[in-house]
Design a protein that fits this description.
Elements: E1 20-21, E2 26-37, E3 46-51, E4 57-63, E5 68-74, E6 102-105, E7 136-139, E8 146-152, H1 158-164, E9 167-173, H2 175-178, E10 188-198, E11 204-205, E12 229-232, E13 235-236, E14 239-241, E15 246-253, E16 260-264, E17 270-275, E18 278-286, E19 289-291, E20 296-302, E21 310-315, E22 334-339, E23 369-379, E24 385-389, E25 407-414, E26 420-424, E27 429-436, H3 439-445, E28 467-470, E29 474-481, E30 487-493, H4 496-500, E31 504-509
Parallel strand pairs: 2-5, 4-9, 10-15, 14-22, 23-25
Antiparallel strand pairs: 1-2, 2-3, 5-7, 6-8, 8-9, 10-11, 10-12, 12-13, 15-20, 16-19, 16-21, 17-18, 17-20, 21-22, 23-24, 25-29, 26-28, 26-30, 27-29, 30-31
């Protein structure tokens, strides 16, 4: 079944209105439900899950420093939309099949409101996980302007809940960003990019078994999920009509496993102005943008003087990354189309500033602790390969306990063949460098022997980050300061199939 490209308009995601708002705080209620939605005009409507009756969920927009309270409400059916593997940690038969907990990815929040994977709850809060503490989450938003996103984080079924549709944007704004005169209003468009596969009847396809099936299990977790269509804002290969002027796009890779290397087939530059954690110091003009799952990039595309042109955003990242197959240019090598067909409604006075603001660097000598942490792959009793952080499972005792206010450097030593997007809750970090090393020698001697010079972060990563690509055969170093909250958080690989099957660990700020 081959769907036509650029048959449907790009949906513009609605901004959620609060239930109440006054000087001191803002209050939202957000319901999760199951419903049908058209994901492509040639497909039957697809049953999906979403927030407030939409997939992706509506965008939540807040001011820096605004106190926001959100009651996340699970109104989902008791039966899951997708196949569950009960051998996965947290998903055994002793817990309800459908359970949810929401994490605002990249937010610095108190632990009780962070969406801890075992703080899940069911419909009507009838059953709750062992770490559940409250119905209404509190977000203080002590952060600068940045592009965050919210998604489900329930232990053992995150990959299924997010794939079913539980994801949306959470955007923090501030005065400084407004003063820069960037494209705004209808010229600022968040884009959430995901891959999916469909059954003939239009329903979501998610594999019940890996390529080498496990005969003892009816349903088995798969090592990764690679879809055969690309959706932007919940539509397969959409088009967007634009005016011949500058537009700001907030790009988010919300796929389970797939990496994207995005380019414009016109050969023009993308002007990147921000990373996961907000604005960079200077904008950069780049031919391509690499996004691992959960990474964001804030870009400006200039359509001036391109009247009548159609420009396609393409993707050429192999899947799985980096050792998989290159994408078929006719299908997953295509993301969406821009049509410069709208008349200019007013003179474009927005700018791409030459300087966006200061970005203080964390100094290596300020670090009070260095941690060496391996990324490992091993085999389980069914012969399935699965991934670990520092060779430990989710339920093993906590080994990372940074002190409140302290600065640490983490060395991620990748002993696997995959690139892993590693996400650390609570903090933003800066990437120091990556350096090739001898993996086989490390496995024998447990000593790092570098095989080449250190590689500085790519220009597009030089800003505040909350997710970093840890590449195979490399040691990736990042530096971060822990705070302003203490308590229990997690760090994990953001390939959701890895995260769900043991590649996640708790840490505690003391």
């Amino acid at each position: 079944m081959v769907l036509s490209k650029f048959a449907d308009k790009l949906p513009i995601l609605p901004v959620l209105k609060p239930c109440r708002k006054d000087q001191s705080h803002t209050y939202y209620e957000v319901k999760m439900t199951e419903f049908k939605q058209s994901l492509h005009s040639e497909l039957n409507d697809t049953t999906v899950w979403g927030y407030e009756g939409s997939y992706p969920g509506p965008t939540i927009e807040v001011e820096s420093g605004e106190k926001v309270f959100v009651k996340w409400i699970n109104n989902l059916p008791e039966k899951h939309l997708l196949p569950i593997d009960y051998t996965v940690h947290g998903a055994h038969l002793d817990v309800p099949e459908v359970r949810t907990v929401v994490h605002v990815h990249g937010a610095s929040v108190e632990p009780e409101s962070d969406g801890y994977p075992e703080a899940w709850f069911t419909k009507g809060f009838k059953q709750v996980g062992p770490y559940y503490t409250k119905k209404v989450y509190r977000y203080d938003n002590y952060m600068r302007a940045c592009t965050l996103w919210y998604h489900d984080h329930a232990l053992g079924i995150t990959r299924l809940n997010v794939y079913a549709g539980l994801a949306g944007f959470y955007i923090i704004r501030d005065q400084h960003e407004r003063s820069l005169n960037l494209p705004c209003g209808k010229y600022e468009i968040p884009l959430i990019i995901q891959d999916k596969s469909f059954n003939k009847d239009g329903s979501l396809y998610y594999p019940k078994q890996p390529e080498k099936p496990v005969p003892e299990l009816e349903t088995s977790v798969v090592p990764e999920f690679i879809g055969d269509t690309i959706l932007v804002n919940g539509k397969v290969w959409p088009y967007l009509e634009v005016e011949p002027r500058k537009y700001r796009f907030r790009l988010l890779n919300a796929s389970n496993t797939r990496f994207y290397r995005l380019k414009l087939d016109s050969g023009q530059l993308l002007y990147q102005i921000g990373t996961d954690g907000g604005l960079m110091e200077y904008p950069i003009g780049v031919q391509e943008i690499m996004l691992a799952p959960a990474e964001r990039a804030d870009v400006i595309i200039d359509f001036t003087n391109l009247e009548g042109k159609n420009i396609i955003m393409t993707n050429d990242a192999p899947a799985p990354f980096p050792g998989g197959d290159p994408p078929d240019p006719d299908t997953v090598g295509t993301v969406m189309q821009f049509r410069v067909t709208l008349p200019l409604s007013s003179i474009d006075t927005s700018v791409i500033p030459s300087y966006l603001g200061p970005l203080p660097k964390l100094r290596e000598r300020s670090a009070s602790k260095i941690r060496y942490l391996t990324l490992d792959d091993i085999t389980d009793q069914y012969g399935r390969e699965f991934m670990l952080l520092d060779n430990k499972r989710w339920d093993d005792p906590i080994t990372e306990a940074p002190k409140l206010g302290s600065t640490e450097i983490w060395y991620l030593i990748n002993l696997t063949n995959d690139s892993h997007p590693i996400h650390i809750h609570l903090v933003d970090f800066q990437i120091l460098d990556r350096r090739p090393f001898d993996v086989e020698r490390f496995k024998k001697e447990r000593v790092i022997h570098y095989t080449g010079p250190s590689i500085p972060p790519e220009p597009q990563e030089r800003g505040w980050k909350d997710t970093v690509r840890a590449n195979p055969n490399q040691v990736t170093r990042m530096i971060m300061k822990f705070g302003p909250y203490k308590g229990l958080y997690v760090w994990h690989c953001h390939i959701l199939e890895h995260e769900d099957y043991e590649m996640m660990r708790p840490f505690v700020v003391i």
